[in-house]
Amino acid sequence: MFECIIDKFYETRDASDEVLKCLIDLSDSEHLYECAMRRRREFYQDDVYTRGLIEFTNYCKNNCYYCGLRAQNHNVERYRLTPEEIYECADEGYALGYRTFVLQGGEDRYFSDDMICEIVRRLHSDHPDCAVTLSIGERERESYQAFYDAGARRYLLRHETANDAHYGKLHPETMSLEHRKQCLWDLKDIGFQVGSGFMVGSPFQTLDDLVADLRFLQELQPDMIGIGPFLPQADTPFGDRPAGSLKRTLNLVAILRLMFPYALIPSTTALGTIDPKGRELGLKAGANVVMPNLSPTRFRKLYAIYDNKICTGDESAQCRHCLEKRVETVGLRLVIDRGDVRR
Ligand code: 5AD
Ligand code: SF4
Ligand code: FES
């Protein structure tokens, strides 16, 4: 019976709230994943794109209740990479075949707009055939415009949850869903390729909240969609909450692929952390991007948004080879490419 419903979803690329809720909690998901694989293949063949992730600062002024980098966590040693260290990471990444660099960090105003622009310009002049993606949180529209003018073309900012009341349970009053959404619309308006997304199984999340996340993404039409299970971090207010479900996350990856056929969907580090084969399973459910870490190994453990994060002891080259093998085990191939969206 459900096979027909999934086939119809595959055709129409949309479903009612009720059907979506059933699919999110589907226990026999084989057909759902097969359809998602087929749809991914239509748009991206067997190609999996990589993004070299440079976690350049773990300072953050915010206090999201779920994240180990929150300002009030005094148990984490803070670090910042120097611009030179960032350029070295990118050079190493380039040699390993990465053609997109993601500069990711907490909300750290030590890195002024001018500094970020300078870094973006330098990365571009060092590697003109690469894309620079920023993932540095909420800033003013003028700042986003300056980053764009400096050559950044992609920006990742997960909305985290599209339900206002739920957002309020995950963040202190100083933060608002309305502002976060405004940032996303501003980024889009400026011309960025935008990435958004949410955690699966964050505390207090309901099935209705997840449907609201999907509906918000339908409005936003992002180029990239990142999701992963919530994972507790011991030094946060949610340190003793249960992790999100692997199965629900995989079902949602497949649902996203069917709703947003063109989207760049990473099989995230959080998926790899919750299960040793999590990233392979994500690819088999329709994901088409992996984001290995390029940060210097000595800093990796400190970028502790959640506990037991994988790859914190590995060199960039090890991650590259490890991922290449993992991608091959599911019949796909890592490509050396900027990995632009195919609409
Ligand atoms: N578990 C899983 N994901 C998390 N993030 C932050 N904290 C956690 C956690 N404890 C995600 C958020 C954020 C991204 C950088 O990492 O969605 O946007
Ligand atoms: Fe800061 Fe982002 Fe962590 Fe929130 S999720 S505390 S903004 S690094
Ligand atoms: Fe980092 Fe496997 S991807 S060691």
Supply Rg: 19 Å
- Please report which band the strand proportion falls in: under 5%, 5-15%, 15-25%, 25-35%, 35-45% or over 45%: 5-15%
Largest sheet: 6 strands, parallel
**What ligands are attached or bound here?**
5'-deoxyadenosine, iron/sulfur cluster, FE2/S2 (inorganic) cluster
Low-confidence stretches: none
**For the record, what CATH class applies?**
Alpha Beta
Assigned CATH superfamily:
Aldolase class I
CATH architecture: Alpha-Beta Barrel
Shape: globular
Mean pLDDT across residues: 97
Oligomer: single chain
Return the CATH topology.
TIM Barrel
H-E string: HHHEEHEHEHEHHEHEHHHEHHE
Number-wise, the strands total 9
Helix count equals: 14
Query: How many distinct folded domains?
Result: 1
State the strand order across the main sheet. Answer: 2-3-4-5-6-7
Q: How far from one another are the termini?
A: 31 Å
The structure class reads: alpha/beta
Account of the protein in words:
This protein is α/β, with parallel strands linked by helices and 343 residues long. 44% of the residues lie in helices and 12% in strands. The protein has one domain (2-335): TIM Barrel (Alpha-Beta Barrel), CATH 3.20.20. It has a six-stranded parallel β-sheet with strand order 2-3-4-5-6-7. It has a three-stranded parallel β-sheet with strand order 8-1-9, covered by helices on one side. It contains 14 helices and nine strands. Helix 5 links the parallel strand 3 and strand 4 (131-135).
